[in-house]
Each structure stands twice: as structure tokens, then as C-alpha cells.
Amino acid sequence: xxxxxxxxxxxxxxxxxxxxxxxxxxxSTWPFGIPLLLVAAVVGYMLFSVVRDRLNNEEDDYYxxxxxx
Length: 69
Hints:
α1 packs antiparallel against α2. The protein has 3 helices and no strands. It has helices at residues 3-28, 30-55, 58-66. It is mainly α. The chain has one domain (3-66). The protein is elongated. 88% of the residues lie in helices and 0% in strands.
């Protein structure tokens, strides 16, 4: 396994841990954490939609594979 894939897996695991701690912290301060929890949900949705769009874009895949850089 290449070093870049190991680093990516490590980064994803650390992001999941960080976001879990963030959500649990916001829930523990219940009445005051609601606005920040909503902001975190919107940012998470936007990040998810960007990654989903990139993975499903055939034009970007074509240029990545066939065009010399």
C-alpha cells in the first residue's frame, strides 16, 4: 500500500474522531450548542455533496486519465 493511501486513511480516521468529539461536545452544552450543531451539519452536508459530485463526474475522470499534464 502506498504511503499516500495510508496518509489518506489516517486523515479520514482523525477527521471522524474529531467530528465525533465536536458533536458530542455540542450536545453536552445542549441549549447553547444548537446553532453550532446546525452549522456543523450544513458544512458536513456541503463536504459530502462536493465529494459525491467529484466521484460521479465522468468528465473529470476522462481528463485525469487521458490528458497529459
